[in-house]
Amino acid sequence: SLIGRLMFDLPEEMGLIAVAVRQTQGKGRGGNTWLSPMGCALCTLHISIPLHSNLGQRIPFIQHLVSLAIVEAVRSIPGYEDIELRLKWPNDIYYSDLMKLGGVLVNSTLIETTFHILIGFGFNVNNSNPTICINDLIAKLNREEGTELKALSADCLIARTVTVLERLIEVFQEKGPNGVLPQYYKYWIHSGKRVRLRGEDGPLAWIVGIDDFGFLQVHEEGKGVESVHPDGNSFDMLRNLIVPK
Fold first, then answer.
1. Where in the numbering of this chain does the BPL/LPL catalytic domain appear (predicted)?
2. Which of these, 7, 215, 37, 211, lies nearest to 126 by C-alpha position?
C-alpha cells in the first residue's frame, strides 16, 4: 500500500494518516475481508513506538488502545455517554453485544529499536448496511430518551479517535496496562461471561480479563487462570466458544 511505502520516508517524529472515503480492498484479521461502503469512517495511521518502552514491550495492546479510542471518541462527548458502543476482544467495536460495527487491524515492523506501526480502522458512522451504524444508535437513543443529539460525521470521529489514542498511548507509556484497563473494562462485553474452551464439548471457563500483554485470561474450573492468544483462537460470540482457528 502507498502508506506502507511512505512511512519509512518520513521524519521520525512525524505521524502519517490516510483517510479513505470508500475502500475496495479492506483487510481483516486472518485474511478476512472488511467491507467498507460510503458512510464508514476509514483510516490508516502510522505511529512510531520505541521498543524499550511500556508499549514497545507489549505491542499486542495497541489494537486494544485503538478500539478503546474509537468507543471513547463517541462516548466522551457530553450527552453521548449512553450510546451503546462496546469492545469485543481482541479488536472489534460492537453495538451492545449484538452486532459488529467496526474493527481494528495492526501491523508492526521493528527497525533497530523502533516499532513502526500501521493501524487500520474502520467503523460504521452513517451507513446502516451491512450491519448498523453509530448514527442509528444516536437516533435510537433520541427516540427512547427524548433527547435531541445530533448525528456525528466520520471526519469528526476520526479526528477524535486519533486525539484520544494519542492520550491513551501517553498514559500507557507512563503507567503501563493498569493506566488504561479500568477504562477498557468499562466498555468491554465479556465481564464474567462463561465460555467453552477448544470446542462445544470442551471445559467450561470464565473470562477474567486481559493479561499484561493484552491476551485474554480465562479461569477454567478446577484449574488456575490461563492466557489465550488471539491469533490461535477465534471468539464465536453466538456459541460462546473460544475455538482454535
1. 1-173
2. 37
| Domain range for 78 | 2-186
Helices H / strands E in the chain, number of each: 5, 12
User: Which of 186, 213, 234 is the endpoint of a domain?
Assistant: 186
Pair 179, 206 in one domain? no
Q: Are 79 and 147 in contact (CB under 8 A)?
A: yes
Terminal Cα distance for the chain, rounded: 27
Which of residues 142, 165, 186 is at a domain's end? 186
Q: pLDDT tens digits, the chain, 245 residues: what are they? A: 544 554 445 444 445 667 665 544 444 445 554 455 677 888 889 999 999 999 999 999 999 999 999 999 999 999 999 999 999 988 899 999 899 999 999 999 999 999 999 999 999 999 887 789 999 999 999 999 999 999 999 999 999 999 999 999 999 999 999 999 999 999 999 887 888 877 778 888 899 999 988 888 889 888 888 887 665 555 555 555 655 54
Is the previous residue joined to 90 through a cis bond, with omega within 30 degrees of 0? yes
Regarding whether 237 and 173 lie in a shared domain, the answer is no
Q: SS3 letters for 36-104?
A: ECCCEEEEEEEEEEECCCCCCCCCCHHHHHHHHHHHHHHHCCCCCCCCCEEEECCCEEEECCCEEEEEE
